[in-house]
Amino acid sequence: MRRIILSSILLIAFCLLVTGCNETNKDSLNKDIKSNGEQVDLSKTQHKICKGSGHIDNNSQANMTYDIYYKNNVIYLLRSNQQIISTSEETLNTYEESFKGISEHYKGLEYYDTEIVKNETSVDYTITINYEKIDIDKLLDIEGEEDNIVENGKAKLDKWLTLSQKFGVKCEEAEDV
Fold this sequence. Notes:
The chain is α+β, with helices and mostly antiparallel strands. 29% of the residues lie in helices and 38% in strands. The protein is built from 4 helices and 10 strands. The strands form 3 sheets. Strands 6-7-5-4-3-10 form a 6-stranded antiparallel sheet, with helices on one face. Strands 1-2 form a two-stranded antiparallel ribbon. A two-stranded antiparallel sheet has the order 8-9.
């Protein structure tokens, strides 16, 4: 039980740090994304896909996928998916509750969309942050300014990449069609 709690805390910390804290992100190569109920025009952005994974215990694994839409080192939109796969219902319930707790902090913040989907073998936490339209000051009030990817009111790609590398996340340029 302690191992599950410790793993939950580490995953939550990772989520908050990397996302500015997705079923596996099926639309990774899709620029047809909605934020705050609105279609987002990402046609003039570049796109990176970043992935990481780790074992929680013998019966559980965490997979992370990040779609980053950016231009000139400025992130316009970040979609993250943290997926926990487990044969343990207790583990899935623990992570589902952890994700709900994280999501509660951002409730009411426009252009910060979250979705939690749980099934028999996994729980997915998808976050879409539209940095182009989000109220950065409100976001920083929630997250704090220390160890954040925001610089001069803009989410910076280089800061996100540096931070994510500490957690073993690997990125590559997407080949969008």
